[in-house]
Design a protein that fits this description.
single chain, mainly alpha, 0% strand, transport, ABC transmembrane type-1 domain-containing protein
Length: 298
């Protein structure tokens, strides 16, 4: 018996529903292999369950983390670094976004120039700024000596406080365009009639910024800050290319300490435990981002 047209239509509908999954299936599988497999491996390795001579469930790595003064110091350094960098990214990114949102001649050229630092790979950025802050041929010392601001070259990367300042400067320069782009998109989405209504009510530039721009940018600011915190907390290339975490542990972040524990000290379980702690922390930080995006899509 020949199937009815209704059965044919139902089969066609089922095929159409599954067609998108067929197209995205290979990409999802690739993501699971590239992201999921290393994450699961690191988790198992932190519990001493894989890639060891005598595998078996153990919490030794996490116990060591809880009592390791170097890890505690590195956590505080990472928190200070992330707080400073993200705050400066937000301030500079908002200022540049406001400037680029104004009616400027050749505005596209200024936008391209503002984005350029973000195109530099983080390791290359670290190497570039290492030469900028180098003691003898460095650009910073050359300028200060020429202006007479200092009598002798400053050992920027040899001093703990100055090295930390240098790393923050390098990453602020490289990373602010990310926040700027998010905030610029938010500025362009603000309806013009809100500013017109504020002007009719007698609001000046500051009042319009305070009562129109900032409230309208609230969700975009949350998204930018959360994503930037996650990005900076896992940063490796800039610090490693510039100072390697030194001098001492002055610029040591969780990411660089994890790398050293794994590849220099050959302590994979301990390094994996650090990575797991950092990943869990970032998942907690991501909760505000998920709330904002889910409310926007609701």
């Amino acid at each position: 018996m020949r199937p009815s047209s209704g059965a044919d239509a139902a089969g066609a509908d089922r095929g159409e529903r599954w067609l998108p999954f067929l197209f995205v299936g290979p990409a999802i599988l690739l993501l699971l292999l590239v992201l999921g497999l290393p994450a699961v491996t690191a988790l198992l390795q932190s519990f001493n369950m894989v890639w060891v001579r005598e595998p078996g469930f153990s919490l030794d790595a996490y116990r060591q983390l809880a009592t390791d003064p170097q890890f505690a110091s590195t956590l505080s350094t990472t928190a200070l670094y992330v707080g400073l960098v993200v705050s400066l990214h937000l301030a500079i990114g908002l200022a540049v976004a406001l400037a680029l949102n104004a009616d400027l001649p050749a505005k596209w050229l200024f936008r391209v120039a503002a984005i350029l630092p973000w195109t530099v790979p983080d390791v290359i950025s670290g190497i570039i700024w290492r030469f900028v802050f180098d003691t003898l041929p460095g650009m910073a010392n050359a300028i200060l000596l020429r202006l007479g601001a200092v009598d002798q070259p400053v050992d920027w990367l040899g001093s703990p406080s100055l090295a930390f300042f240098g790393v923050v400067t390098a990453e602020v320069w490289r990373g602010y365009p990310f926040v700027m782009l998010i905030l610029l998109a938010g500025l362009q989405a603000i309806p013009a009639h809100l500013y017109e209504a504020a002007a009719i009510d007698g609001a000046g530039a500051w009042q319009s910024f305070r009562y129109v721009t900032l409230p309208a940018l609230r969700n975009m600011v949350i998204i930018a800050v959360v994503l930037d915190v996650i990005w900076e907390a896992r940063l490796f290339g800039t610090v490693y290319g510039m100072t390697g975490g030194g001098p001492g542990d002055a610029t040591q972040l969780v990411s660089t300490l994890t790398f050293r524990q794994y590849f220099e000290f050959f302590n994979p379980a301990y390094a994996s435990a650090m990575a797991v702690v950092l990943a869990v922390t970032m998942l907690v930080v991501a909760i505000p981002y998920l709330r904002v995006t889910m409310s926007r899509n609701a």
